[in-house]
C-alpha cells in the first residue's frame, strides 16, 4: 500500500488549520498511519529541503519551517502520493485552484501551509527522515469495505 509524507507548516498551525487539513485527507478516504507535533531543527529542515539547497529562497525556507511547530504525518492509500498533491494544490497559493488547500487558504508562495511528497522515491525518503518504523501504525480501518470494491 502506497504511503506519503505530509507536513502542516508553521503558518498552517498558527492559523488554526490543522483540523481542517486533516479532515480533508480523512474524508477523502485515506488512512492516517503516523502523526506527530514537533519543533523542527535546522538540521532536519536542511535535510528535508536538501534538493533546494542552491536556490535563493533556501535560507528563508529553512527559517520559516523552523519558526514554529509543525504537524508531521504519514498517510496511506492507493495513489495517495499524487492524490495528496492534487488536494494540496500548486506550489504558489495565489494561483492554486480553489478547492485545494493552498488555493483555499493561502496567498503567498513562502506561506503555502502544507508540504506533500512529490513521488514514490521522495515519499520513502521523507517518511524515513521524519519517522521511525515504530512510530508508524499498521492498521485496517473498518471503513475499508465501504471505500473499496
Ligand atoms: P512544493 O512544496 O509544491 O513541492 P517545491 O518543492 O518546488 O514546492 O518547493 C519547496 C518549497 O519551497 C515550497 O513549498 C515553497 C518554497 N518555494 C518554492 N519556490 C519558491 C519561490 N520561487 N520563492 C519562494 N519560495 C519558494
Ligand atoms: Mg516539493
UniProtKB/TrEMBL annotation:
SUPFAM superfamilies for the chain: Nucleoside diphosphate kinase, NDK (SSF54919)
Phosphoprotein recorded as keyword: yes
Annotated keywords: ATP-binding, Cytoplasm, Kinase, Magnesium, Metal-binding, Nucleotide metabolism, Nucleotide-binding, Phosphoprotein, Transferase
EC number: 2.7.4.6
SMART domains for this protein: NDK (SM00562)
Ranges where the Nucleoside diphosphate kinase-like domain occurs: 1-138
Localization (cell): Cytoplasm
Annotated binding of ATP, by residue: 9, 57, 85, 91, 102, 112
InterPro entries for the chain: NDK-like_dom, NDK-like_dom_sf, Nucleoside_diP_kinase, Nucleoside_diP_kinase_AS
Gene Ontology molecular function: any one: nucleoside diphosphate kinase activity
First-tier enzyme category under EC: transferase
Keyword Cell cycle listed: no
Active site: 115
Catalytically driven reaction(s): a 2'-deoxyribonucleoside 5'-diphosphate + ATP = a 2'-deoxyribonucleoside 5'-triphosphate + ADP; dZDP + ATP = dZTP + ADP; a ribonucleoside 5'-diphosphate + ATP = a ribonucleoside 5'-triphosphate + ADP
Pfam families the UniProt entry points to: NDK
Cofactor(s) annotated in UniProt: Mg(2+)
Domain of life: Bacteria
Role: (Microbial infection) Catalyzes the phosphorylation of dZDP to dZTP, when the bacterium is infected by a phage that produces the substrate for the synthesis of dZTP (2- amino-2'-deoxyadenosine 5'-triphosphate), which is then used by the phage as a DNA polymerase substrate. Major role in the synthesis of nucleoside triphosphates other than ATP. The ATP gamma phosphate is transferred to the NDP beta phosphate via a ping-pong mechanism, using a phosphorylated active-site intermediate.
Similarity comment text for this entry: Belongs to the NDK family.
Subunit details: Homotetramer.
Name recorded for this polypeptide: Nucleoside diphosphate kinase
Organism of derivation: Anabaena azotica FACHB-119
